[in-house]
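W.,

You were right to be curious about this one. When I first looked at the sequence I had no strong expectations either way, so I just let the prediction run and decided to look at it fresh. Below is the sequence, 453 residues in total, followed by the output.
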Amino acid sequence: MNAKPQPLVSSASGPLKGAVIPPGDKSISHRAVMLGGLAEGVTTVRGLLEGEDVMRTIGALRELGAKIEKDGDVWRIEGAGPKGLRQPRVTLDMGNSGTSARLLMGILGTRPFASSLTGDASLRKRPMGRVITPLELMGAKVNSRPGGRLPLTITGAAVPVPITYALPVASAQVKSAVLLAGLGAQGTTTVIEKTPTRDHTERMLRRLGASLTVEKTGDGAEAISVTGPARLEGRSVSIPADISSAAFPLVAALLCPGSALEIKNTGINPRRAGLITTLKEMGADIEIINERDENGEPVADLAVRASPLEGVEVPAQRAPSMIDEYPILAIAAACAKGVTRMCGLGELRVKESDRLTLVAEGLRACGTRVETQGDDLIVYGDGLPPLGGAAIATAMDHRIAMSFLVLGIIAREPVTIDDGCMIATSFPGFSEMMNGLGANIRVKQSRLSEPYS
């Protein structure tokens, strides 16, 4: 990531038109690299997100012994096999990627050697204790900063103990970390989740040959079990476009009058599609076409047309299916007519930033009435474009940055963000793609670089 901040300015644009394929799904890309690195044989991956977060995962798996190279538009991963991972010679730097850190801890928790992990200033603030707890139950030893934070050293269990672990909070990352640790344990490791979370790990484990079952419990929860030690087989993987990235051009097209956009090859996994459900409830014209299955993941094209939106209440139980999309949903809510109440957003406080606070502060600065009540975010829209005109502090958060750039496209006055460099962690080429559709996003020129009058 660039050391020097790059402020960006987003101004009102005309209709957005065209067809785009957003970058590959970040969650699936991480898992393809990690599981391909654990497998025997070669895994070939098309559509891999080549953002900075996934590059951190690639760097870590290379250091652990997997051979990973790019050939044209295909990534080739020669896995280390179930016992082939080696102790890293250096500290593994996860940059800004919480997914890289938490899932990798799962893998390392049942490998009989010590590994050290760190990250950037933002990642070092994020809690890792929710992963540390189950891994220690399996026999791993973790030495971390207070509060279970990076940097940390994890020594994998020499004889890992399979566990049954009920998730205290809905978290796909914690679930995945425990399942990945279970690959190295002798016996069956089970994760019980009361609220369904994204299931990309389960789908890819099945794809690569793991023995995995999903069963309903008596109280309606799900028990996901994996049997180890597991031998995964390298396969071909095709990664769809990330619905969390597609969310930005999608909402922009809904809000810009006269817009008509087709977003192709988008993952519509039902455990990730909460934003589409919510926007349709608000009156959005979104048509799901050409539905298909690719490598066990549901994929479709989205035809989006500008639509007047109305406020709704978004239930807390929907949060796991759209947790990364609340910042851009809040932008849509600011343009909708009426009140939108988004419930149960406590998890937003421990993402790349305190997203709940940043979204509320940013919308207020742009002239929208906003309230927070506990973990609920309440946005009062009047059906008109917000005033805008604010300078937004992003706190190094890519989704905050992109959300307020979308707001600038439809606001009455331009919106500035303090730094757009971190957008590359998930959406390389975001500004260029949006401008190609008709947006007006540009680098803010400093006074020193402006010509004298």
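Here's what jumped out at me. The chain has two domains: 8-24+242-449, 26-225. And, maybe more interesting for your project: The longest helix spans residues 26-38.

Coffee later to discuss?

I.
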